[in-house]
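S.,

Sequence below, as promised.
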Amino acid sequence: MKTIIVDLNKKFPQMKKVKNIELVVLADIHIGDPLFNKKEFLKARDYIRDTENCFCILNGDLINNATKNSVSDIYCEELKPMEQINILLDYLEPIKDKILAANIGNHELRSYKESGIDIMAIVMKQLGILDRYAEEAYYIFLYFGDKYSGRTAPMCYTIYGTHGCGGGSSSGAKMNKLISMSNTCYADLYIMGHLHQSMATELNFFLPDYGNQCVSLKTMKFLMGNSFLDYGGYGERAGYRPVNNNFKKATLSGTERNIKIEI
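The prediction came back faster than expected:
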């Protein structure tokens, strides 16, 4: 697990004055797959680019990366893996300063397993933000805004995320997979992808407050991002339910600890 410190107030001084920020998860894009919905992805990318208080996390499977030994069909790919990487870089260049963190998905991992080449590390280095890259899970301390609780200080949120793994065709199985992330660590927001179905929930529990010798009720929010694949291919053959390609976002308050998720 890599710890990533992001202080938006230092990088973007105007973030001290915002009441909230928006966070979009970009995952399961699958550039190179003939079912890649370019229109919906660019809508999300342009929204991040054009909205001052909007930022994003890259959560794996950004390219399809079919290889000779992978499950994906190399004969159906629209682009070679190198072409997919170059297009991805072109897409991400306008929002590189708004990327809070990134990790690797199982599709990029194919190249690492076969040749030891980490595609996402190359992409992040090319963008000049390799320090925001986590090979596996990331744990973000995110600072922005100004709250007042006896003194003025930036709001801080913790975000834990991985691309995800395993399967589960039912919504219940996918939800269980999502909330099981809290078995690893505590965070304000948990992010996962891989299963291509947008969903969100929250759980409450008590944490000890050592200073005040009491317990405090804490809320954990969970977000599973959407995919940018149209219906068809292996999903249709397996009888999976079609999903919505519209991007999803979480809104984090800068004045009180509150996260609202739109799906």
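The first helix runs from residue 8 to 11.

Coffee later?
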